[in-house]
């Protein structure tokens, strides 16, 4: 079951969902709009390595916006810190943004129960597109979970700003990283 907008607002008021800052005008019929934060990350190497940390460059989006380029992956973030110990959150791009040719959260829309923080957005435009800090870029929906809950306690907990991949961290924990 998906939560309706009024239920999202009620669950935020009673603490079952945490959205900070919460703005009632961002509640939709069955989702909550999230806004683009002011920082982007890009990877600096031509070839990325899943077994090691990859260097990034930080870009601050000014009031005049920033032009995203096709063929480049940008890691953005939500202004809002969002999470729930009760519901499963899923984040998708808004249809208005998709109609501008921007893919948001291409492969990883599901959040874990118990994650709380700013969400990293994987942004990929099909043509040059100017984006602005604070623009409504995505929407989060909340689903009822069934069964015992194990709260998220992973490496991205309490994220602030865009987070590069830490896939290598999982491999290191398993002893699988090449030297």
TrEMBL record:
CDD domains: trimeric_dUTPase. The keyword Hydrolase applies. GO terms for molecular function: dCTP deaminase activity. It is an enzyme of class 3 (hydrolase). Keywords: Hydrolase, Nucleotide metabolism. It holds the Pfam family DCD. It comes from Streptomyces venezuelae (strain ATCC 10712 / CBS 650.69 / DSM 40230 / JCM 4526 / NBRC 13096 / PD 04745). It comes from the Bacteria. The keyword Kinase does not apply. Its EC number is 3.5.4.13. GO terms for biological process: dUTP biosynthetic process; nucleobase-containing small molecule interconversion. This is Deoxycytidine triphosphate deaminase. The lineage of its organism: Bacteria, Bacillati, Actinomycetota, Actinomycetes, Kitasatosporales.
């Amino acid at each position: 079951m998906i939560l309706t907008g009024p239920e999202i607002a009620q669950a935020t008021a009673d603490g079952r969902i945490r959205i900070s800052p919460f703005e009632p005008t961002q509640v939709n019929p069955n989702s909550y709009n999230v806004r683009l934060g002011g920082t982007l990350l890009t990877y600096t190497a031509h070839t990325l390595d899943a077994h090691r940390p990859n260097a990034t460059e930080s870009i601050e989006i000014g009031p005049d916006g920033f032009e995203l380029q096709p063929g480049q992956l940008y890691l953005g973030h939500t202004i809002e810190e969002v999470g729930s110990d009760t519901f499963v959150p899923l984040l998708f791009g808004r249809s208005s943004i998709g109609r501008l040719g921007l893919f948001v959260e291409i492969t990883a829309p599901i959040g874990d129960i118990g994650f709380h923080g700013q969400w990293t957005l994987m942004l990929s435009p099909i043509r040059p597109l100017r984006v602005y800090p604070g623009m409504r870029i995505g929407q989060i929906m909340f689903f009822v979970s069934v069964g015992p809950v194990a709260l998220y306690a992973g490496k991205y907990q309490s994220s602030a700003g865009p987070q590069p991949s830490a896939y290598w961290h999982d491999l290191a924990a398993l002893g699988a990283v090449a030297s």
